[in-house]
């Protein structure tokens, strides 16, 4: 085939795009050399960079249109391979040969049109096969070598028959068949033949299938661990008949009804659940979205159940039902306004009821095996609790009445419930009429939650609770030092939560007797100091939560005495003082990052919330240097005081000149000057100054008056004073004669430095440089500012050439005369 240039370019571009897509982004290493995720990287091939030792590979949401033998590199350690939604259309024979030790293969969401015979048969060790939403039409897969298969998930396909291949009856570990959301409408005797031969407990999921008919006896002698039939029938009549056809089925857990998100439906067949009487089950899970004007008798076929869970049901009452073996009853959002009368169920061990609407509870009685009662979240109002509500029910160990409206207690409310181990009232208003003896008789209590109950702790004590290990009192309030006697009898306490109680201080005697305390929660209080953590009774603490308090610092002596076993310490959301006075505390935070929780929220307090920064980012080295600098500066200050007088005497002219500059200085334009120019030169260059410079300037027209130190300085006056008064301050301009002798003269360098200070004050070019002889550039750097001045300003250079000589004097005179 001949391709045009345009077609050739399109073809090459496509190849380029695919190659780039195949490269994709690098895979993420989750566990070194073991677990990798390449999900959603636009890859078209398995990266060759993956190590041979990889055991888990997530390659979902990429592009593998066809699987063949060369797709996978040799990865004999690979156990889990996820190829979800990789646009796979064809799977060739031996496609998985290089990964034949797979134990889990996930092919969900691939539009597979061709599945080669025995393409999966090389996976001898496969235990979990997921073929959800792959356009599968039959369970007749050639997987006879997959003898270790445990789970087969083929939901959301087009399967019409649940008939398994006959060889699967020998799969001794097979325990899950998920057929949800397929197209199964009829189940006959021969369809379940393999299930019957398997003869062991397994889970069968048939939810969301349009079941119309089940042949009676189809499930006879079939034993299942779980059977899911949620939203699995095309009509209520079909559901009723299909349930009846399940006669002979034995199942441990039965899931029927609809999904919780489904809409409620009015039914004209109120007895559509009567077919359940034909099924032998132990536990039933029912989500009922149906309602009827007639009574539906939900529990009629559940009399032999050991566990009943009803959710989203439309029940007005629960009449007397002769349950024979019922141990656990869960009622959630059932529409009941009263906790049902269950005193006729002597086998009952566990009762859980939750309702989004207010309900009434008048009590239950004569339930000798009842151990677990959860009536939380029902907006209950109990005018008297709790023994009076449970007469002749002595074995209750768990009682949860949390998240209700209000509960009132009178004298010794738990007198007949002395086996209670767990008592939970959190977020329920408690009204205690008699505080004395409130917890009496609860010698076996291990867990007590009275958080956010608005209890007044002025007189409440925890006497007799010697076995209590967990105490939660968060969200209440304490006045004064109440902890010191609250906790004195709790010798077995391991967990204490007193968060958000408005506590400002904890005394050193508060935890006397709590030597077993392991976990302490003090969040959202007003604590400023933590010295109580050094108590000997708290040496076994492993976790402390003091977040959201007013802690700014912890002294070094407290830090050194903190419990040695601390593994969790929460200091977050406190305004930490990050100053150099707290370096020990900050250093402790930096060193203890392994035990500090929410480290990113341990922040330094600043004047602006927008400038807060993490405590671990504080610069400790700055404080160390600052401390050293303080010591050095102290020594320097002492030394400075001692030598200051000597320095002032020796460099008095500096002081004098500074005094002139900063107090009485006036520029030449503001004062009368005695000289036109002060000449700075070396005495070795005096001959040139006298014969050339003075002769040409002072005897010229107009005459220019020069200040020369050997002629014009006042006798008896210090040299420094003469330089300042007569030379620099008494002259409009300053002429600097640069030569090798000038560079070597300390007086010349000093005079030039003073001249520069005048230049800085006036910000104009009053210094005129004359280069008398060439000086090496490196030598000009010996005089402070000279090299820089020569680089930035125009200077004059002396020459013996007559023509150059004439230009020299013209330019010099012009520079001096200029204002």
UniProtKB/TrEMBL annotation:
GO terms for molecular function: transmembrane signaling receptor activity. The chain crosses the membrane at residues 629-649. GO terms for biological process: inflammatory response; innate immune response; positive regulation of hematopoietic progenitor cell differentiation; regulation of hematopoietic progenitor cell differentiation; toll-like receptor signaling pathway. The keyword Glycoprotein applies. It is a single-pass type I membrane protein. The keyword Transmembrane helix applies. SMART domains: LRR_TYP (SM00369), TIR (SM00255). Keywords: Cell membrane, Cell projection, Endosome, Glycoprotein, Immunity, Inflammatory response, Innate immunity, Leucine-rich repeat, Membrane, Receptor, Repeat, Signal, Transmembrane, Transmembrane helix, Ubl conjugation. It is found in: Cell membrane; Cell projection, Ruffle; Early endosome. Residues 673-816 form the TIR domain. InterPro entries: Leu-rich_rpt, Leu-rich_rpt_typical-subtyp, LRR_dom_sf, TIR_dom, Toll-like_receptor, Toll_tir_struct_dom_sf. SUPFAM superfamilies: L domain-like (SSF52058), Toll/Interleukin receptor TIR domain (SSF52200). It comes from the Eukaryota. Residues 1-21 form the signal peptide. One of its GO terms (cellular component) is plasma membrane. Belongs to the Toll-like receptor family. This is Toll-like receptor 4. The gene is tlr4bb.
